[in-house]
Amino acid sequence: MTALDNVSIGAEGGVVTGLIGPNGAGKTTLFNVITGLQSPSSGRVSFDGDDVTGLSVHRRAQLGIARTFQRLELFGSMTVRENVQTAAEICELWSRKETPARTRTEEILDRVGLRAVADAPAHTLPTGLARLTELGRALATSPRLLLLDEPGSGLDSAESGEFAALLADLASEGAAILLVEHDMDLVMQACAQIHVLDFGVHIASGAPDHIRSDAEVRRAYLGEAVEA
Amino acid sequence: MSAHAIELIDVHAAYGGIEVLHGVDLVVPEGSLVAMLGPNGAGKSTTLKAIDGRLVPTSGCVHIAGRHMNGASTKQLARAGVCSIPEGRGVFPNLTVEENLRMVTQLHADLSMSEVAERTYARFPILGNRRTQLAGTLSGGEQQMLAMSRAMVSDPSVLLVDEPSMGLAPRIVAEVYEVLRQLAAEGITMLLVEQFAQMALSIADYAAVMIQGRVVTFAEPADLGDVAGAYLGASA
Amino acid sequence: MFPAGTSSEPRTRITLGEFIGLTIAGLALGAIYAIAASGLVVTYTTSGIFNFAHGAIGMVMAFVYWQLRVEQHWSAPLALFVALLLVAPAIGLIIQTTLIRRLNPNDTGMALVVTLAVMVALMGIAFTLWPQTQGRLLPAFYGPNAHLSIGGQLITYEELISIGLAVATAVGLRLFFYNTRLGISMRGVVDDRQLMAMNGRSPAMLSALSWAIGAALGGLAGILTASTYSLDIINLTLLVLNSFAAAMLGRLRNLILTFVGAIVLGLLDAYVVGYLKLTGWLVHLRPVVPTLFLFVVLLALPAVHLRSGTAAIAKAIRIPAGARSLGNGVALVVLAVVVAPFLHGTVLGNVNAGVALGIGALSIVLLCGYGGYVSLAQYAFFGFGAWLFSEVGHGGNPVGLLVAAAAGAVLGVIVALPALRLRGLELALSTLAFGQLAYYMFFLQPEVMGRSDLAIPRLHLPGLSLESGDRNLIFLTVVFALASAGVLALRRSRFGRILVASKDSQVAVATLGLNLRLSKILLFALATALATFGGALYGSTQRLVTADNFQYVSSLFIVLIVYVYGVSTPGAALAGGLSLAIAPLLAVHIPVRFQAVTYFMTGFGAFVLLGRPTGIIPAASEWLHDKLPRRVLHEPAVGTVEVSRAAASDA
Is C199–B52 a contact, with Cβ atoms under 8 angstroms apart? Predict the structure, then answer.
């Protein structure tokens, strides 16, 4: 079955780009194709102008692509700190870093707000914090492209406001952030540019206000235009 | 006990220690169709799982036809008439269409294969043409029809349907909804989880809106107001 | 393992008639493999658990059949009916409902170890009920002289029966899985267990049924093997390896390919015997034919893709801090110093051997405990290390130890390479195949240690004689303490964290930029180096070894025992090594009939794992930790309560 049909989506550095669409629209598939966990039946993935379609998962990560997972992939037997630290250490294997992994780990823990739970075993975390841990882990590789798969689920509205600010902050440092999210408040708040996927097809893109009023988008989400 | 086909009282449920239902209260009156709406991650599918036995609630009560059903297995509930059609096509991809239908006959002793096949192929002639084909090779719409056939032939006392429109083209969705409409017209009690609010509301008697693990609104479609906010952000 | 019995007579010229005869013999053997392998496939596909005890069930059924047929003088049909349609399914059901049901198929290590434990326990039962001191023969169904003659070739009825039963099994399984509702649901449950429950059929019942069917097929294969070849506990139990090789062709899922694989294996066996001169270094080629076939299949199989969503929630085990582990080491050495003078003779020798094995078994902690890869070839590495030390450690030169370790690292890479692309289960079984290959094709060679004892010099350190046993014990204990401190230090290091992270989620580490293949190779190299190092010390402690010291079956035992004690704990390696070395001493003091007690203890000990997956030692230390007052231990408590409070304050 075709999960993605001829989708062309770009993400630029310094900006948070939103990727939304109803369930089954192919968003996670797209992330898998970008990170190399799935291969596209046709088409190319390029990163910084280079074709990365044939590269292995870890090679792409080493080029600067990092992600979080909708179905969590935490290191469950480790603490939150160890999760981030191990990521930083894996990164040290392929990239020269000025600051040692431990220092960067502490910086990241503060930055994403995991200080209070740093010593908790990862498998005991509530979803919201677990997703933040995955974000912290991804940040430990200093990615140039950050793919976030539903990081907002499990956050309450105050937390999601802070989270949007964090994303903006991260983007301002030059990384490209691609955000898949169902929490529309978060998407509208955080994203400068939004792409809408429906049924594997790219149906709209634009600024938040444009997307909100787009008829196609409303149809995709609410099924308004369908006549029985 | 009341005549409610399904009644949930303060149901809590969790996946591996992480609570996702924080006290769901819900009533599905006998013979009615309740559409359950709400954004992703609100706990709609989890609620269905708590009813059909795939997930055992950590606390609270699940009543089906007035009977306390917490902890009953999926198989027991299925044999007791709870028909659940899970999200993402409830078919066995490596069995043929006919073999899939044969699985349905396990539900009742008096359900004969020929009867099941006859009724299914009468309603969906396309499946009749594909009876020896593996279900996994069918189109998404055909798979959903095959899944729906279990509901059509097994005469369930309660029908739970999870996002029947997921990943389907609008024309196919309309066809699936036509079947749901007919089942509702036959008086089958139905709890329908759907992300496409408008479509679900067009056939529903009541709507329940779920947000963050709780049912926050329960009303007739006409009294519901604008649900778009729940999906597209509060300011929409 | 090959059913022993028919010895190979090299032939010079083969006529067409002989070719037909060989082919029939090969088909008959392939038929038995096919029946056994199909049982394995049915169980695996439906329940998701690879049944290591499959051969052992067949073995027990062969003895049950013997009991009924020979001891009770039942008629063959009645005995067969009771054995295959009542007893075997009952055994399968009992195993499934009491043990297998509680396993998580994603936890390959635990699933392997528990079925391995069942195998060992069944062997213990068989050794007790049917002591091998008495010779037993299963009568052929039609007597030894019943045969047909085709083209001048004698074809026994037994062979025809095997072939006929395999055909019947194939047809029967086909009809069952495609024409009955129950059979179809067993295929369907593989796709979606919950959906099967929604269709009113219990997935657990279907899994149980698959074990019953698997046990019956295993039993049939066991009885056929026993009546054609011999009634031998070990050989019958290891039939599982040959049927695994056949089933691997269909990746343990495809019945048709499994039958093809089985027939090819049977024919290969017959032709190898018929056409090759099995002399010289090829003398033991026959038993490893399935192994070689398996390696070819493994190399040809396509690589497995990383899958997300399979991350298992693992329970963390406390890693002792550096100071603490050093303290433990010192305490251990002090204990050795105190105990050594009181030990003499064989006891001292066996304790020494146990500590040396413990050093080698630390490799299991590295590989299985930290890395999550089950290796079933440790004794091959021990043997290799011992042999190397005898070759290069002249006069007990300690450089020989380093050479052994370095060569071990290379060997580890060679073993890991073909299995890199595979899943944990396939990897584990390919290491077992490697162990078998090493035993038959290397250790059994006269030039190595096959014909006579291999003399190995006692290690000689400059200025320190280890000739006396008590000194050697203290020395070995020091080495163990240092090695386990090293293993723990490794666990606390960057590499250790990366290992554990890879075990928790392969997808995550790959998307963080880790080259999983490289880290896997590194882990295998390290662990194997440790194993050969320990093996060299073991050899130097024993002074005389034979191939029997490095039986490939022993690898199963040591992994099992280390798992039972706690596979993530270095102490478990020592406990495991000592248990294996001391068990024979105890056996002397118990009646012959109960000598199988070690099998029981090992087998049933593993059932502990179901309740305490981290093993005995961590469970005991946790228990102590809970009993002792907190302030004695000076350890901060981090628990879920604190976590949720912290989470709340963070919000």
Answer: no
Coil/strand/helix, residue C12 = coil
Residue B39 forms contact with A (CB below 8 Å): yes
Q: Is-contact C432 C552, C-beta < 8 A?
A: yes
In angstroms, the CA C621 to CA A191 distance is: 51
Q: What is the pTM of this model?
A: 0.86
Mutation for testing the C interface, residue in B74, B76, B113, B137 having most C CBs under 10 Å:
B74
CB contact under 8 Å between C198 and B74, yes or no, is yes
Q: Which of B41, B140, B170 sits opposite A226 (nearest CB)?
A: B170
Among chain C residues, the shortest Cα distance to B76 is held by C200
Query: CA-nearest residue of chain C to A124?
Result: C640
How large is the C-alpha radius of gyration of chain C? 26
Please give the residue of chain A at the shortest CA–CA distance from C305: A37
Q: Kindly state the average pLDDT of the residues A35-46.
A: 86
Within 10 angstroms of residue B222's Cβ, the number of other Cβ atoms is 8
C191 in contact with B at a CB cutoff of 8 Å?
yes
C299, two tokens: 């190399």
Identify the residue with better confidence: C264 or C609. Answer: C264
Alpha-carbon gap, residue A139 to A135, rounded angstroms = 6
Q: What is the DSSP letter of B208?
A: E
Nearest to C427 by CA among C384, C371, C497, C487: C371
Please list every residue in chain B whose beta carbon sits closer than 8 Å to the beta carbon of residue A126.
18
Report residue C645's pLDDT band, with 50, 70 and 90 as the boundaries.
very low
Residue C216 CB contacts under 8 Å (≥ 6 apart), including other chains? C39, C84, C85, C88, C89, C92
C26, C266 Cβ separation under 8 angstroms: yes
* Tens-place pLDDT, residues A191-209: 988 988 877 778 888 888 8
- Per-chain mean pLDDT for chain C: 86
Contact pairs from chain A to chain C, CB under 8 Å? 132
> Shortest CA distance to A114 belongs to which of A79, A146, A89?
A79
Here the tokens at position C400 are: 């020989």
The pLDDT-based confidence of C640 (bands split at 50, 70, 90) is very low
% pLDDT > 90, chain A: 37
Of A22, C88, C126, nearest to B169 (Cα)? A22
Burial pattern C480-519, b for ≥16 Cβ within 10 A else e, equals bbebbbebbebbeebbbbbbbbbbbbbbbbbbbbbbbeeb
C-chain residues near A83 (CB < 8 A): 501
pLDDT band at C589 (very low <50, low <70, confident <90, very high): confident
Residues in chain B within 8 Å Cβ distance of C187: 92, 94-95, 99
Burial of C203-237, coded b for 16+ CB within 10 Å and e otherwise, reads bbbbbbbbbbbbbbbbbbbbbbbbbbbbbbbbbbb
Ranking A63-77, A203-217, B126-140 by mean pLDDT, the lowest is A203-217
Which chain B residues are closer than 8 Å to C197 by Cβ? Answer: 53-54, 73-75, 78
Instruction: Give the tens place of pLDDT for each residue, C170-193.
Output: 999 999 999 999 999 999 998 888
Q: Which residues of A touch C309 (CB under 8 A)?
A: 71, 73
Report the residue from A23, A124, A222 with minimal CB separation from B197.
Answer: A222
With a cut of 50, say whether residue A51 has pLDDT above it: yes
Domains of chain C: 25-300 (1.10.3470), 322-650 (1.10.3470)
Q: How would you class C543 by CB atoms within 10 Å of its CB: exposed for 0-12, middle for 13-18, buried for 19 or more?
A: middle
Size of interface B-C (CB pairs under 8 A): 67
Instruction: Reduce the DSSP state of residue A205 to 3 states and report it.
Output: strand
Mapping DSSP to helix (H, G, I), strand (E, B) and coil, where does residue A147 land? strand
